[in-house]
Task: structure prediction
Amino acid sequence: MLEFLMVIIFIGSVIVLYVSRLPSIKGARGEARVNSFLRSNLNSQQNYILSDLTLPTTGGTTQIDHIVLSPNGVFVIETKNMSGWIFGDANQSRWTQVFRRQKFQFQNPIRQNYKHIKVVQDLLGIEMRQIYNVVVFVGSAEPRTIMPENILWDSGDLLRYIRSKQPICFFNRDLQSFMEKLKNAALEKSRKTSRAHVGNVRKMLAERQNDKTKCPRCRANMVERTNHKTGEKFLGCSRYPKCKGTREL
Ligand SMILES: [Zn+2]
Result:
């Protein structure tokens, strides 16, 4: 009887160990850690934090780990719970993880998060310079190449990064309206099948993307310009030459 019990306990622990190492479970733990760290360290009167948000996009849905709405800007955060050595740079499409002498490829997390940035930007109707693309590695992974400044290696780095940005972007009433917009657009578990809701959000995204008065890349205002070679008029970003976004007139 005792042996039988021990076998059951052994099998049980193997299952628990296996499940706890599944990437999705590891990922969820990493996200929860970042979430509770941000909540206990950022002033809740001035900052709003949204976690695990599923938003409709023009061609499907996308899942965002965290959004921090702060007076310093909107921070869209992708968490990576990984171990080993990480190799990559901002311009590569695939990054490499070396773990236990094995190499694994994964999508450049900055690019992965860029899709999230575009959706949030369109939903909130804000400019590219007011939104930050941030990736936080929350496991024991270490960088083995020089990394861009928006790749961070623990929650403390994330906090310092958010605080390092100038508090010029938004008033509290802006942040509250952003919170409302994101909550209204997000798919709740019970609403996941609501086609009408997804349709409405998509319509709004399409309208924002077609808004001729705003730059398609950074959402700054557009101004009328003339092509010096052909004499044709077109709309160009007011932030040119920093941004080269154009639209047809
Ligand atoms: Zn622009």
The chain has two domains: 2-210, 213-249.
